[in-house]
Amino acid sequence: MSRTKVLPIPVLGRHAVNAYLLLGRRPVIVDAGTPGSGRRIIDRITEYGVDPADVSLIVITHGHIDHFGSAAELHRLTGAPVAAHVADLGPFRSGRAREPYRPTGPMGRAMARRKELHVQVEPFEPDVLISAETGLEDFGVEGRVMCTPGHTAGSVCVLTDEGDLVAGDLIANSFMGLVPGRPANPPFHDDPAGNLASLRAMLALNPTTLHVGHGAPLEPDRVRRWAQREHHRLARLEAAGRLTAPARSRT
After folding, report:
1. Are the C-beta atoms of 211 and 4 separated by less than 8 Å?
2. What pLDDT, on a 0 to 100 scale, did the predictor assign at position 177?
3. Which residues of 226-236 are buried (b: 16+ CB within 10 A; e: fewer)?
4. What is the pLDDT of residues 86-139, one digit of tens each?
5. CA 29, CA 5: separation in Å to the nearest integer?
6. Which candidate, 12, 7, 62, places its Cα nearest to that of 177?
7. DSSP strand E in 43-178: where?
8. Residues 227 and 202: beta-carbon distance below 8 Å
9. How far apart are CA 44 and CA 48, in angstroms?
10. Which residues lie closer than 8 Å to 58 by C-beta, 6 or more apart?
11. Strand-pair category, 179-184 with 57-59
12. Are strands 27-30 and 57-59 parallel, antiparallel or unpaired?
């Protein structure tokens, strides 16, 4: 068995938006960053010693434009197929994230007004449609794509056999990565309770590290403690009738 390395690809700032390179028997890219990031991602994987033509797969964790914004460009630059969940086909096919954005706190409310989140990006049609847990062995990585709905209906993570969880926006660092190592919600969740359930399900698999879309890697025990506090917070909101209802999934 070839050990899989998880290497960060900063797309915006040091940690504000991350894609990842998985190095096993063949390289796999997870997420495609913001629009216009394709060449930056290619340059970084080349620095890691990877020929872009060797990339076997591009996995998109969900239908927000800071994660799929350059998927079509990366597909052209590498020739690799793109894998994504069927429940987020609407955003992928339209090039627009499903709206309205559902903020998790003050930062999300402020960010929801930013025009960059509402632009149309180049759409794409996934070559590999995910609807259930999917192994990556055929693509050269000892690991699997896990369905983790909640942030969006079609959110997924990648769990390697060594225990590295490439978590997308299942969890983030505080203030979009400005406070490294401190778990927090990302600015938006379609279904906060559903996302927390997905996070706890992934933690139950005992990952060694959580590699997130926004911020530095997170330590699982610290995330477990945060998840317990988040459970109590959501319970209070639900009791008060203030818990955000899940966004409807449309394709």
Report:
1. no
2. 67
3. bbeebeeebee
4. 999 999 999 999 888 898 888 888 888 888 778 899 999 999 999 999 999 999
5. 12
6. 12
7. 57-59, 82-85, 128-130, 134-135, 143-147, 156-160, 164-168, 172-173
8. no
9. 6
10. 28, 29, 30, 32, 71, 74, 75, 78, 80, 81, 82, 83
11. unpaired
12. parallel
Q: Which two tokens stand for residue 176?
A: 């979009």
- Taking the alpha carbons at both ends of the chain, their separation in whole angstroms is 38
Which pTM value belongs to this model? 0.95
d(CA 75, CA 69): 12
Q: Identify the bridge partners of residue 17 per DSSP, sorted by sequence position.
A: 12
Beta bridge partners of 134: 145
Give per-residue pLDDT as tens, 145-186: 999 999 999 999 999 999 999 999 999 998 766 777 899 999
3 Cβ contact partners less than 8 Å away, ≥ 6 residues apart: 24, 142, 162
Q: Which two tokens stand for residue 26?
A: 């063949």
- Judge whether residue 243 has pLDDT over 90: no
